[in-house]
Amino acid sequence: MSTSVGEAVADTSNASSITREEKVNKAKAVLGLEEGESSSISADDQLLAKLGYRAELKREFSYFTVFGQSFGAMGVAPAIAESIVFSLGSGGTVGMVWTYLVGCLLLIPVAFSLGELGSSMPTSGGLYYWVAELTPKKYRAFMCWLAGYMNTLGYISIYASTIYAATLILGAAISIGNPEFVASKYHNYGIFAATIFLTFGMTCVSSAVLNKLNFCYIFVQLFMLLATIIALAAATPSEYKNTASFVFSDFQNTGFWTSNGWAFMLCFLTPVWVVSGFESSATIAEEASNAAKAVPFAMVSSLVTATITGWAVIITIAFCMGTDVVGIVTTPLGQPFAQIALNSLGVNGAIAILIFLWFSSICNCSILMVAASRETFAFARDHGLPGSFYLRVLSANKTPARAVGFVALISLAEGLLMLVNTIAINSIFNLAIMGLYFAYCMPLVSRLLFRKFTPGVWYMGDTLSLISACYSVAWMTFIFIILLFPTYPDPTPQEMNYAVAVLGFVLVFCVVYYFVPGFGGKTFFTGPVRTIDEVLENPVISEAADSAIAQEVGAFEKES
Fold first, then answer.
1. What is the per-residue pLDDT across 183-215, written as a single tens digit (0 to 9) for each?
2. How close are the terminal C-alpha atoms of the chain, in Å?
3. How far is CA 348 from CA 47, 226, 343, 351, 471, in A?
4. How far apart are CA 395 and CA 398, in angstroms?
C-alpha cells in the first residue's frame, strides 16, 4: 500500500500496540521521507519534511527561473530609472556612479551568507524560519515573531514602493505626450491602485504559469537594459554628452547636507534599493526543484549580474544627461530619468522608452508580489498574522491567492502616504530596505551568538563563513542607520522621513500584540508549526505503517 503527502489531511491516530516512534519511522519509510522509497516524494520534499513541513506548493521552478525570481525582483533597468533621484539629488553623477558599484560589491558577501542559510533551510518562511532554527527555545517564539513581521513588512513595502515608482514613470510619459496634463496626487493614487489590481491578476496564477512568466521576465529585463544603453548612447545630442571627469571625478554636492562625505553616503540608497530582492529566491524555495542549491545560486548570480549590467546603465546615463543635475532632479515631470530621456531622445523616443520601462517595472512588481505573498503565506501558516486561518488557505490551483490579496490591501494603505506629500511617500523606499535589512540581520546575529547553524550543500567553510556573517551584519547595520536620516538637516513636519514613524509603529504593534495578556501572540504563537506531523499522524498513513510492520513481522516468523 502506498500514499502521498498531499492525501494526508486529518489529525488523528489509531490505537495500536506498536509505539508511536516505530509507527512514525515506518511511516517515513513507507512515504520515502528518509530512504526515498516512494516515487511520489522528491528529495526536495524529503528535506522539507525534515524541516517540519509537508509539501503544499507545487515544485515548478527550475534553476533558471529561480534565478529569474531574484533577478526579476530587482528589475534593474526600471529600478535605476526610478531611484537615481536619490543619488543624483545628493552626490551628482560621481555619487551615482561610484556608490552603485561599491554598494553592489559590498552586498555580495551578504548574498553568500544568506545563501548559506537558504541552502541549509530551504522553506518559504525563509528568514523567520532561519531565526527559529538558530535561536534557543527560550527566545525562539518572540524572535521569530519579530523577524516574521519585519520580513513581511519589508517585502510588502518594496512591492508598494516599486508600484509607486512605476506610477511616476507612467505619469511622466503621459505628461510628455500631453504637456498640459499635470498629474495630481489623486491621479497618481488612481494609477497606483490600478497597477496593484493589475499585478494582483498577474500573480494569482498557478506555479506552472509563474514559472513560464519568470522565464519571460528575465528576457524582458535584459532587453530593457540593452535598450536603455543603446538608445541613450546612440541618440543623445552632443550638447548633452558629458566628459569622463564629470562622470567619474568631479564631485558635486547636490543635496541639502553641507558635508560632502555625508552627501556621498546618502547616495547608497539607490543601489540598495535597486538590488533589493536578490534574496527573494528563498520565498519560492518550496516551489523550486533542487532548492538547496538553486536558492543560494540565484541570490549570488543575480546580484553579480545586476552589479555588472546596472553599472553599465548608470555610466551610460551619467555620460548622456548633460550637466544641469539640479534641473534634472527638480524637473516638473516629477521623474529625473524622464527628463533625461526627453533631452536625449525627443518626445516620441522618450515616450517609447518610458512605456517599455513601465511594462518592465510591472513585470518587476509582479515578481515582488510573488515574494511578498509567499512570505505572508508562510507566516500565516505558522499563525503569525491576524486572520492567519484565512490567509494560509490555498486556492484551487495551489497558490496563496488570499495572501496575494492581503499584500494588495496593505500596499493600498501604504500608498495613502502619497496624499500627504512626496516626501512622505518617498519614505516607503527607506522603509522597504529598513524592514528587509532588519530581518536579514536577525538570523545572522542568532547564528553568530548561539552557534546552532548546520551547513547545507552551499557552504564557504567555517572561517570564511564566520567572517562573511560578521561583515554582513556590520554593513547592513550601517545602511540601516543611513536610512533613518531625513533628506533635510533640519526637517519640518512636511520634510520628515516618515519611514522612522511607520517602522516604529510596526515594532510597537509587534511587541504589544505579542505580550498583551489573554490573547496576544505569546498565548498562541510558538514559531514554525510542524505541518509534517499532520501527515505522519494521519489514519491512512498509520494503516500503511501498521501494514508494513505486520508484513515484516510475518516474514520474520516464517523464517524462524
1. 788 888 999 999 999 999 888 888 788 878 878
2. 25
3. 54, 19, 11, 5, 47
4. 5
Q: Which residues contact 424 (CB under 8 A, 6 or more apart)?
A: 417, 418, 496, 498
3-state secondary structure 83-136: HHHHHHHHHHHHHHHHHHHHHHHCCHHHHHHHHHHHHHCCCCCCHHHHHHHHCC
Give the number of other Cβ atoms within 10 Å of residue 204's Cβ. Answer: 20
How many angstroms separate the CA atoms of 349 and 336, rounded?
Answer: 16
Cα separation of 483 and 102, whole Å?
17
Query: Percent of the chain at pLDDT above 70?
Result: 84
Q: Which residues contact 477 (CB under 8 A, 6 or more apart)?
A: 437, 441
Whether 283 contacts 55, CB under 8 Å: no
Which grid cell sits at 371?
A: 515574494
Amino acid at 419: L
Rounded Cα gap, residues 410 and 399, in angstroms: 19
Report residue 138: phi and psi, to 5°. -60, -35
pLDDT at position 170 is 92
Q: Which amino acid is present at 417? A: L
d(CA 210, CA 60): 8
- pTM equals 0.81
CA distance 413 to 193: 10
CA 529/CA 514 separation, integer angstroms: 17
Q: Please tell me the distance from the alpha carbon of residue 372 to that of residue 364, in angstroms, as a whole number.
A: 12
Nearest residue to 73 via CA among 376, 280, 310, 309: 280
Answer whether 404's CB lies under 8 Å from 393's CB: no
| Residues 542, 30: Cα–Cα separation, whole Å | 10
Q: Which amino acid is at 152?
A: T
**The C-alpha cell of 308 is what?**
555588472
* Cell 546615463 sits on residue: 317
The distance of Cα 490 from the centroid of its chain, to the nearest Å, equals 33
Comparing C-alpha atoms, which of 35, 11, 42 is closest to residue 542? 11
Q: Among candidates 113, 473, 121, which has minimal Cα distance to 300?
A: 113
Q: Measure the CA–CA gap between 337 and 316, rounded to whole angstroms.
A: 12
31-46: pLDDT as tens digits: 444 444 444 456 666 7
Dist. CA 123–CA 129, nearest whole Å: 8
Tell me the pLDDT tens digit for each residue of 491-535.
887 777 777 787 888 888 889 989 988 888 888 888 776 665 555
Q: Report helix, strand or coil for 395.
A: coil
Q: What is the pLDDT of residues 469-503, one digit of tens each?
A: 999 999 999 998 888 888 788 888 777 777 778 78
Answer whether 537's CB lies under 8 Å from 12's CB: yes
Residue 392 one-letter amino acid: R
Q: Could you read off the pLDDT of 216-239 as tens digits, one per residue?
A: 888 999 999 999 999 999 999 999
Q: Could you count the other beta carbons within 10 Å of the beta carbon of residue 208? A: 14
Q: Is 9 helix (H, G, I), strand (E, B) or coil?
A: coil
Beta strands in 4-68 (DSSP E): none
Alpha-carbon separation of residue 465 from 280, 401, 461 (angstroms): 21, 37, 6
Cα gap 111→476, rounded to integer Å:
12
